[in-house]
Amino acid sequence: MNTRHVIELAPSGKTFEAGDELLLDAMLASGLTVPFSCRRGACGSCKVVVADGAYRAKQLDPGGPAPSYPLAANEMLLCQSHACSNMRLEIPGWSLDTPALVVEATVLGKRALSPDVIELIVMPDMPLAVRAGQYVKFRLVDGDSRCFSIANLPAESDGRLGFQIRRVSGGLFSETFLGAVEAGDLLQLEGPFGACTWQDDDGAPVVLFATGTGYAGIKPILLTALKRDVEVTLYWGGAQPADFYDRVFLDRMIMDHPRFRWHPVLASEGRVQEVALGHGHHWQAAQVYACGNGAMISQTRAACLEAGLPSHRFVAEAFVPSGRSSAGVPSKPLDPIWEKVGPRYSLDGMLAAREQSIRALAAIASQLKVGMTTGEALDMAAEQLHAMGASHTWHPTYIRFGADTVRPPREGIDRQRRLRATDIAVVDLGPVWDGYEGDYGDTFVFGDLPLHLACKKALHEVFDETREAWLRGLTGRELYDFAEQSAESKGWRLARNLAGHRLADFPHALFESKVLAELEIPPSEMAWVLEIQLCHPTEPVGGFFEDMLMLQA
Ligand SMILES: Cc1cc2nc3c(=O)[nH]c(=O)nc-3n(C[C@H](O)[C@H](O)[C@H](O)COP(=O)(O)OP(=O)(O)OC[C@H]3O[C@@H](n4cnc5c(N)ncnc54)[C@H](O)[C@@H]3O)c2cc1C
Ligand code: FES
User: Fold this and answer.
1) Average pLDDT of the residues in 204-228
2) Closest Cα to atom 1, ligand 2: which residue?
3) pLDDT of 61 higher than 60
4) What is the position in ligand 1's atom list of the atom closest to the CA of 326?
5) Are residues 300 and 273 in contact, defined by beta-carbon separation less than 8 angstroms?
């Protein structure tokens, strides 16, 4: 007899029933939203905390791989377990109510901060989970929208969102719409989005750059730094003294926080990056954030990197025109069968997840040390992803050293293998950021062995050529045929079992999924990951690179 057990999910109190089937299948059948991905006990997405009740592990297929995700004593994987009694479970970092992509918000008020900057305060009809530094899109008629940064920490303002909006001459939102809006009006907001967010708590000295209302994106990061009592310095550029419209607040913070400095920089007196470099920060250890005009961001990035800042420690948002005519639009509609997405899918979300994944990869690569075992590297990567705010890893983190670089990801590796002074290493990440799947991987060469360097070079050439072929309209299958020939022409073998896959709002595993190499239509942008793994035909040397297919990579 298939006894049914009642499974309660804390703290919501929602329940579902489960019998002999896997708990993951029972929960999916009940219509509840479930975090999951691999279904083989490797990614940990479906991890729950068992607060009460008994369960048994799934019987393994003969010769099949055992679940490899490490669990604490009170944790269990839904995809690997059957209930043996009524149970009470908690799903860490997961809400059963999928946050809406679009919310309504009521205008609470607006006031002038300076002759051309307006502060707008709104209250969304449901609390938004906002990370310091993110923005929302204000929806306008006809599907158009405008981006504005959330200039406060909503969780500390009863959920209110504050914006600082510069009047743009002839601007549809900042002039026409904002001029007419009144307290009580209803607005539609999409988001929050963005990867220019507070990164982690490693205590690094923080250097902030803003021009004009770029300060709106920087202020929540400043507030976070002040709360954590780290050393923080702000350089704020403006054309005239009135542009430093939050001066009173900043001067007060200097009195309250001895580790905080701020410098107003008038355009007539120099540029923010010039002033900062003159102050001799310890750039090798700093964490830099920049918001505002695009020229300031690219010049500041170049100057800071030149001074020794590691590239992944420069985090920025350019305040460019954000109307429909200037924003990225998908090249073609997604295929309704092979490119299904969830209710929160958005290009802004996918782009932010990609950006944060690239940054995480660089941060992890910078911590790979000669002598470290693969196991130690995996533990370090897990800590880094957690510190940067990843809620899940939709696929396990793969790190491969030396001869393991020719193995496909699912094949077991030697956790005790040590990174040597002359070596080649692969890192492949699949983190989930704010409900969006990121996926990024690359190969790193230690020492200067010509074969290792040649592998990395060929890898990137094959990827770039295959991406170019995608722009010409090839199907997924044709892309991998093309990549195979491209690899061969360079003296390498393409590992075709690493064949590309879907990416969407988490979890894309809900939808029927093909590998990219079997797709008979041209893949759309921002829905697929192109994976390239090369192996040397005779030597145990391999490399891996992957990225989301997008028009402007
Ligand atoms: C992620 C993000 C966050 C942003 N956050 C803020 C914020 O917090 N505060 C803020 O004031 N702005 C912010 N911006 C910039 C803002 O979204 C744009 O300026 C927006 O287009 C203004 O809308 P509008 O309808 O008033 O003007 P539009 O109708 O979009 O533009 C009118 C004319 O002005 C030009 N224009 C518009 N904005 C700019 C600009 N920034 N630089 C140069 N030319 C421009 C347009 O090309 C067009 O010709 C942000 C932009 C992004 C991408
Ligand atoms: S571990 Fe269960 S879905 Fe991956």
Assistant:
1) 97
2) 41
3) yes
4) 47
5) yes
Q: Are 106 and 125 in contact (CB under 8 A)?
A: yes
Do residues 12 and 96 touch, judged by C-beta distance below 8 A? Answer: yes
By the 8 A CB rule, do 218 and 315 touch? no
Question: In this structure, what token pair is assigned to residue 21?
Answer: 């089937």
Read out DSSP for 55-115? EEEPPPPTTPPPP-----TTEEEGGGEEESS-EEEE-TT--SSPPPSEEEEEEEEEEEEET
Pick the ligand that lies closest to the CA of residue 76.
Answer: 2
Map residue 177 onto helix, strand or coil.
helix
Q: State if residue 393 touches ligand 2 by the CB under 6 angstroms criterion.
A: no
Residues 532 and 535: their CA atoms lie apart, in Å, by: 10
Three-class SS state of 212: helix
What is the distance in A from the centroid of ligand 1 to the CA of 323? 7
CB of residue 213 inside a 6 A radius of ligand 1: yes
- The DSSP secondary structure of 227-288, one letter per residue, reads HTT--EEEEEEESSGGG-TTHHHHHHHHHH-TTEEEEEEEGGG--HHHHHHHTT--GGG-EE
Quote the CA–CA distance of 470 and 29 in Å, as a whole number. Answer: 37
Q: State in Å: Cα 197 to ligand 1 middle.
A: 20
User: Contact 111/164 with Cβ under 8 angstroms?
Assistant: no
DSSP state of 149: E
- Domains of the chain, with CATH numbers? 5-90 (3.10.20.30), 102-193 (2.40.30.10), 206-318 (3.40.50.80), 348-548 (3.90.230.10)
pLDDT in tens, 171-186: 999 999 999 999 999 9
Q: Which whole-number Å values give the CA distances from 340 to 432, 495, 508, in the listed order?
A: 18, 27, 8
Q: What atom of ligand 1 comes closest to residue 165's alpha carbon?
A: 11
CA-to-CA distance for 257 and 278, rounded, in angstroms? 23
- Kindly report, residue by residue over 365-374, the tens digit of the pLDDT: 999 999 999 9
pLDDT at 201 over 60: yes
Residue 122 forms beta bridges with which residues?
A: 107, 161
Output the pLDDT for position 410. 73
Per-residue pLDDT, 221: 98
- Closest ligand 2 atom to the C-alpha of 41? 1
pLDDT in tens, 263-304: 999 999 999 999 999 998 999 999 999 999 999 999 999 999
- If one residue of 168, 213, 347, 351 were mutated to test the ligand 1 pocket, choosing by the most ligand atoms within 8 A of its CB, it would be 168
**137 alpha carbon – ligand 1 mean position (Å):** 11
Buried b (16+ CB within 10 A) or exposed e, 356-373: bbbbbbbbbbeebeeebe
pLDDT digits (tens, 9 = 90+) for 454-496: 999 999 999 999 999 999 999 999 999 999 999 999 999 999 9
